[in-house]
Amino acid sequence: MIINGKPNQSIVYPSDEFKRTAHISSINEYKHLYKKSIEDPEAFWMDIAKEFYWKSWSQNNDFLKYNFDLNNGPIYMKWMDGMVTNMCYNVVDRVIEKGLGDRVCYHWESNDANTYKHLTYNELKQEVCKFANALKSLGIKKGDRVAIYMSVSIELVIAMLGSARIGAIHSVIFAGFSAEALADRIIDANCCLIVTSDGAYRANKFIPLKDITDKALNICEHKGHQMIACIVSPHLDLSVSHQQNNKDINYNYAINWNNKIDIFWTDIMSSVSDYCQPVWLEAEDPLFILYTSGSTGKPKGMVHTVGGYLLYSYLTFKYVFNYTDGDVFLSTADLGWMAAHTFNVYGALANGCTVVLFEGTPVYPTPSRLWNIIDRLDVNIFYTAPTTIRSLMKFGDHYVKSSKRDSLKVLGTAGEPINPEAWYWFWDVVGDQRCPVVDNYWQTETGGPMITCFPGATPMKPGSATFPFFGVVAVVLDSNGKEIEGPAVGQLAFKKPWPGLARTIDGKHEWYQITYFQKFNGYYSTGDGVRRDSDGYYWMTGRNDDTLNVSGHLLSTVEVETAIVEHRAIAEAAAVSAPHPIKGQCIHVFVVLNNGFEFNSELNKDIKHRAREKIGALAEPDMIRPLTSLPKTKSGKIMRRLLAKVTRNDFDFGDTSTMADQSIIEELIINSSSY
After folding, report:
1. Sorting pLDDT into bands at 50, 70 and 90, what band is 163?
2. What's the rounded Cα separation, in Å, for the pair 498 and 667?
3. What residues form DSSP beta bridges with 460?
4. Is 498 left (phi over 0), alpha (psi -120 to 50) or beta?
5. Most CB within 10 Å of its CB: which of 98, 144, 272, 527?
6. What is d(CA 235, CA 197) in angstroms, rounded to the nearest whole number?
7. How far apart are CA 421 and CA 528, in angstroms?
8. Cβ(357)–Cβ(106) under 8 Å?
9. Cα separation values, 9 from 16, 461, 484, Å
10. Is pLDDT above 70 for 21?
11. What does the alpha-carbon distance between residue 195 and residue 148 come to, in Å, rounded to a whole number?
């Protein structure tokens, strides 16, 4: 197969130079450690736990207790039950005590790339302590729930860590959700306080965060849910004219102000001490609640706990990116999503890393933005999603090649299966064929990567997430729940617990059991399809409902989409099934074109031929539909259910609160009338 004019190598090996400094430098070394982690998980994870501070370390209790079998009672898992620690202490104070207090923990860049902030670990601790004391002054205590609705900023991280320091449970809500979606999550998590900003920009779009928060709190009030306070960060230096503590503060942009609950961040932070003693928590106490989409359309509040998540976020960050002391990490993940919780905050800080946060989008104000950041801040590790990679590819190689990128050591991608063309572009153009491309698979529920490449050890197969992480016992199940050995196609499940697994859905443990354990009793069911090849590599094939049944033959949406995206005119593609009078189901593919291409009959024919040639006659789409962009969730996942409805002329889209760009709905409706 030819990709971008180059032969598609089946395996790409890490260089000898990279392997010399890698934590794990061979596949045999990986297998040795992996075997230890699954044969004696208690000993394996206890060794990791010893790297952290525990106020109380009890070896009298079982290090791991769990039940994955519904026949034996409720599902549960407990790691280090009874041991006492504090997450904030371990990822901030502990790092300072190692002599790294003057190291920059965060670089931050504004949406327009004109404003920069830098914070050291010493400064982070002071700000976190002040915010923790601010919460305490408002009556927030251990177990209370704090909602955070802010754009990507250092203040958001401070709010997370300040909550964790006093044992309050934070719930970060993506700063793009509507007022209704925000209110639903506030009420569902029973939050008593919210932290927000006056507003933010995402590229050219202004997001009135305070106005949205006000509307959400009005909804909460009408539903009988009262809030203690709303802390407002003057993120834009645009806020309000108001009187607070007998002091006038004037800003250029007026927002509504409710003296009953609204409090300015700067006011309350200036009135408290910069030291706060950590509240010591048990390992199984909740750390945060993070919402993920549910198959029913109702978001699920996943609960992650202090001890297990600490160990898993730390170790995955260290080994997935081969983190070495002093590395600088850049990720395009938004802080409202799990990838950023683990890799931009807790896992990175636990390793003493320097993290780059940027507000806005990767291609604004120019497509050079990321490459400029990498050069200016000497970024060593760059982590992004396949969607972003394909978006950057649309602009060609010029913007990338105009930068040096000589500081880069590791590239990473996750969020969805990556097509080989995007993988090779990432490896070849961005990484100059010297940076391993770490592909990994995980979920909000899992706390960290479950299937991942190890950059110094794993021979890379473009498109494969490769092998299980330590402690992860992955299996492929058939439709009856029977394990399939060797090369197999089926459903991905895990048969033993790992420390990062979410313990429950907040307040709805029965729903948790039904969603993840009832279908295949004795296993955690991911809901994702997978193929395991003859070398033991895992290839994600999409959600189990993301399959195409054509004339009784099942095809993976990922397989069809990968074939089509290899066409030079196509930037992105999404395949869905549509009714057909003879076949029962046929394939409709929605495509986004690269710059410089127009959709016409010749291109339509060529795309269909590509799918037929690559996969077979069954894979040839009956219909190709061009769009300016695909409908996606705010975490970047394609909303195929909307596209499937369009093929049926059904425009009752249901809950679209997780949709990143609502304007696409109008285009979908107009698009359907053309066919």
Report:
1. very high
2. 43
3. 12
4. beta
5. 144
6. 6
7. 23
8. yes
9. 18, 8, 28
10. yes
11. 5
658 burial via Cβ count (<10 Å: 0-12, 13-18, 19+): buried
Which of 461, 466, 465 is closest to 11 using CA atoms?
461
Distance CA(595)–CA(571), nearest Å, equals 9
**Cα(127)–Cα(609) distance, rounded to whole angstroms?**
59
Residue corresponding to tokens 């809500």:
173
CB 448 within 8 Å of CB 316: yes
Judge residue 516's burial from the number of C-beta atoms within 10 Å of its C-beta, 0-12 exposed, 13-18 middle, 19 or more buried: buried
**Torsion angle of C-alpha atoms 196, 416, 505, 58, degrees rounded to 10:** -90
How far is residue 142 CA from its own chain's centroid?
A: 27
449, 441 contact by CB (below 8 A)? yes
Q: Any idea which residue has 């899992």 for tokens? A: 446
pLDDT bucket at 61, cuts 50 / 70 / 90 = low
Q: State the fold for domain 119-282.
A: Rossmann fold (3.40.50)
Fold held by 545-672: GMP Synthetase; Chain A, domain 3 (3.30.300)
Helices (H), 192-237: 209-222
- The CA-based angle 43-45-46, given to 5 degrees, is 60
Among 415, 192, 184, 215, smallest CA distance to 300 is for 184
Q: Do domains 119-282 and 545-672 have the same CATH topology?
A: no
The answer to whether residues 634 and 174 touch, using CB atoms and an 8 Å cutoff, is: yes
> Terminal CA-to-CA distance of the chain, rounded, Å?
33
How is the chain split into domains, by residue range?
119-282, 545-672
Q: Which pair of structure tokens corresponds to residue 482?
A: 């029977």
**For residue 660, which of 171, 175, 112, 185 has the smallest C-alpha distance?**
175
Kindly provide the residue ranges of all beta strands, DSSP E only, lying in 432-499, ordered along the sequence: 437-441, 451-452, 467-468, 474-477, 488-494
- Report pLDDT digits (tens) over 359-417: 999 999 999 999 999 999 999 999 999 889 988 998 999 999 999 999 999 999 998 88
In 3D space, the residue among 47, 133, 52 whose CA is nearest the CA of residue 352 turns out to be: 52
38 to 23, 383, 419, 446: CA distances (angstroms): 19, 28, 31, 17
Which residue, 288, 256, 13, 327, is CA-closest to 172?
288
118: three-class secondary structure by DSSP: strand
Least confident of 19-33, 103-117, 173-187: 173-187
Give the range among 74-88, 107-121, 134-148, 290-304 with minimum mean pLDDT: 290-304
**Portion of the chain with pLDDT greater than 70, in percent:** 92
Structure tokens of 337?
A: 């999503």
- What span, in angstroms and rounded, lies between the C-alpha atoms of 71 and 68? 9
List C-alpha distances in Å: 399 to 215, 393, 467: 41, 10, 33
What number of residues does the chain have? 675
Is the Cβ–Cβ distance between 646 and 281 less than 8 Å?
no
Phi, psi of 200 (to 5 degrees): -160, 160
208 closest CA partner among 182, 228, 190, 226: 182
Coil, strand or helix: which one is 606?
helix
Q: Which residues contact 387 (CB under 8 A, 6 or more apart)?
A: 415, 416, 572, 632, 636
pTM of the model: 0.85
Cα–Cα distance between 656 and 110 in angstroms, integer? Answer: 28
Residue labelled with tokens 């736990």: 49
Q: What confidence tier does 439 reach under pLDDT thresholds 50, 70, 90?
A: very high
Residues 297-317 have pLDDT tens digits of 477 899 999 999 999 999 999
